[in-house]
Design a protein that fits this description.
signal; 2 domains; alpha+beta; cell outer membrane; four-stranded mixed beta sheet
């Protein structure tokens, strides 16, 4: 009987102590920076806040302890609206200026004395006139021949006409429009020297004094394109 009583006492003690081992809660464990108990519940402090561990960062936030910030997908960039190219400005017409000029050429530079045939030096002089004519649009070009008073009126008239025609023919040969060039001779009728300044009989001195009267004048009228200054 004593032995049986002893066994019953040991069994009773074992049964009384067994709940301490069977139902004891497992120790708390860290989960994603939080402390949770054995049942997976978040351990909270006296203020009711989840217990964060030192390794916690906002990236480890979990509901219901902390709000989870959800990443918002960035909107795809919209293509820039197409901008129509600006219309090209209308070309500005080049300004046109009227041209009216009168050029005078020494007859002695163009021809030999008492001659109507161009000298080589005369062609060089007229080449400058050709360039002048080609740089503009002329409506009219008049070539006028003049002589000094030596010789008869009829002779001087014919010589002045021949010289004017020679200059006209040369310009046409240099591709200056024949339809705008006219030639005329005025003989000795329009001298530029004063009679009192050139006196005496025909001599080398008198011929030299009357040199300004022996001339060819070219009068032009038309338009010219103005080139803007750079």
């Amino acid at each position: 009987m004593q032995k049986l009583s002893t066994l019953l006492a040991v069994a009773t003690t074992a049964i009384a102590l067994s709940p301490l081992y069977v139902f004891a809660a497992p120790p708390a464990q860290p989960v994603n920076g939080y402390l949770v108990d054995g049942g997976g519940e978040f351990v909270k402090n006296a203020s009711g806040e989840c217990w964060r561990l030192g390794a916690w960062t906002p990236a480890l936030a979990m509901e219901p302890c902390d709000p989870v910030i959800k990443a918002v997908a960035a909107a795809a960039p919209q293509p820039a609206p197409e901008v129509a190219p600006a219309p090209m400005p209308a070309p500005v017409p080049a300004p046109i200026a009227p041209v009216a000029q009168k050029l005078r050429y020494s007859g002695d530079a163009l021809f030999g004395f008492d001659k109507a045939t161009l000298q080589p030096e005369g062609k060089t002089v007229l080449n400058d006139l050709v360039r002048e004519l080609q740089g503009a649009t002329y409506e009219k070009v008049t070539v006028t021949g003049h002589t000094d008073r030596l010789g008869s009126n009829a002779y001087n008239q014919k010589l002045s006409e021949q010289r004017a025609q020679t200059v006209r023919d040369y310009l046409i040969g240099q591709n200056v429009g024949a339809n705008v060039i006219a030639a005329q001779g005025l003989g000795e009728t329009q001298p530029t020297t004063e009679t009192a300044a050139c006196k005496g009989r025909k001599s080398a001195k008198l011929i030299a004094c009357l040199q300004p009267d022996r001339r060819v004048e070219v009068e032009m009228s038309g338009t010219k394109t103005v080139t803007p200054a750079q």
